[in-house]
């Protein structure tokens, strides 16, 4: 079974188009020249991929499920933010060559991520000699960026690099309207409410400066082996300045108090990654190979938040002085990856594979809260709050072995795999309070030292049957997949020490969280004609011990009488998901290209916590439509529309969201350069609206992470021509998993 080098070369040839390829375990979307993401980020590009959605806060979901694993070139990476997708909003979209949407991952991949995997393959030029590109971007609200890709390739080695700088100053707005219900104490007595309604209006200026660089070298030891080394570095310097106006009403809904809170948050983030890759091919069969990988990643974040609140007006006889507060957060993360994969072809149409992967991660978070000492009359003097301040040391070690076997029989191909993973999660909290003092302070026990271990087997089964293939490009196939996945609790989800997102909201992790396990079945169909392509699938997922974040009243209040709300993650008994998706691509003429996709899903959750039933059943959907038209004077015009339907969870109802993007571009300078103009969220309608209802309050929220954005971009390319002598596909970029089993 020869490696399909022709298909790899084809990917490079059609890189200016957005196409889809169906593999045994994945769909491959070649991003190409997506005009609406020019000058944008990787998050912007992902938001245009079918089955994927990026919400207004930057959270990435696959088929409506946010528990998705993000990989870069087939591996976990600092470029994916140590599992935090925020860095993807800092990397330029032009860095992407293609995105692999893996809803039925083979045994080679980590079992992490119940929704599946998004594998982002970065661009890698294979042309001999010196080549590259430079991209300049300017936008409003303030958005400035410069990025460059430079490569130098000879027969024996390849030098590659990517550099980027980005500056943005984007406004963010939040509006909340909270109505508090009557509640009763343990003796059945009605509690007196300080306020019946609170309305808050927050405006944030988000200043972000980001630098990133990725440099490396691939050296061909001989015709059968190569070594690749690379270094990635990212530095971020962010500053958020916010003002929050709060109006407070009594039982008669009369405004009796108004406050203004000012908050300044600064964060500096340094991260780097060192990666080594070795590939050894045996004999004349390029598929018989051994690959080995080593990665070391380190991330250091320093954060400071200063908060001050004053009365605009209040009742002087019933006023409390607000405390000035400062929060310090120091976070240090380290991660090692060791991996080895062996592939053995068995005859012409079969293949055996086995390997090992070890992920070893440690993070240390030092959180300190300082508050003004108003109790002792020391105004302006800040002292450490021993109740909240803590140091959390967290270790996650995952060792995995896998094996898989695949074969092709006529039009039928299959791939069976089994993965064994052992997980160790350890957490220790250094607090200034004893365990007895912690219980007295918070009213419930806090586990300050825990060690959880579990072993899991994860089978995968994938089939593909080609109903029809022909030389004129027509194609028809059916795929069927099954996989078992895991969602591990980590980080803030298991840190039992409460941390504050505001004076009235506390987030507390749950060290008793069990891992969530899911089993998923996926049936897909592809039909390709000369000008029309149809993709479709239906899927079912059954998840046990799924995570759900719930809110409850702590029974405590602030100095000015506002209830303090706790958010805590819990295990639900089950989460059942059923869904279907449909994709259509139609190219009737050379000057017209139409794409659309539709994803419908239903989920049903069951479970309770502290006597409250959090079961829910909901249906939601999202859809995309894009068109690309070539106008006179060779001007390309692209329109992209997205709608996400309303949805519900255990405590919240969220309204639907619509957004519209528009872009124009033209190639100039003998097609060596491209100038483009795009508008993201043309109607400024990408706002998150929700209603959260609990036993003690009802809250309406409206949130806009980013307003309408207009960008102008200029890209200049030099010496970028496809060379038939390129060693396409030789580099271990993680994008070739199971490519041989295309059926």
From TrEMBL:
One of its GO terms (cellular component) is cell outer membrane. It is a multi-pass membrane protein. InterPro entries: Beta-barrel_TonB_sf (IPR036942), OMP_b-brl_3 (IPR041700), Plug_dom (IPR012910), Plug_dom_sf (IPR037066), TonB-dep_rcpt-like (IPR039426). One of its GO terms (biological process) is siderophore transmembrane transport. Keywords: Cell outer membrane, Membrane, Receptor, Signal, Transmembrane, Transmembrane beta strand, Transport. Residues 285-716 form the Outer membrane protein beta-barrel domain. Signal peptide: none annotated. Residues 39-117 form the TonB-dependent receptor plug domain. Belongs to the TonB-dependent receptor family. This is Putative TonB-dependent receptor.
